[in-house]
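Data deposition worksheet. Section B asks for the primary sequence of the deposited chain exactly as it was used as input, without tags or linkers unless they were present during the calculation. Section C holds the resulting structure in token form. Section D is free text for depositor observations; keep each observation to a single sentence. Incomplete worksheets are returned to the depositor.
Section A, Depositor: J.P.
Section B:
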Amino acid sequence: MPAADAWESFFGPRGHNGYPVLRDGRVVGLLLRRRLQGAEASRQPCVIWSEPLSPSQVLLAGMSARHAAGRMAQLGFSRLPVVDGPDSMRLIGVVSLRDLLANSHVLLHEETVRERLR
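Section C:
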């Protein structure tokens, strides 16, 4: 897909910050907004601007939220693809830092209320 089409379809003014790049059904990289900015009008393939990902840089189904957060911190990414296994690298989802933090807000609120009641 040309970079201009990817920008218009997926990123744009209020799009996401990153998308997995697939080749033959396998995750091979991550296309990040910050890397694609400046190439919004380019007809070159968007894969040129993607970050390559190896099996050690993706999340596997069944990994804990703690493990996912650690891997994101280690790589400096706020989202990572989830694959069904390191050999197949078949995409089954994407987890973002926002996804990991969503329930923390509820737990913090419950803990704050509990402390006030003591």
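Section D:
The first helix runs from residue 3 to 11.
The first strand starts at residue 18 and ends at 23.
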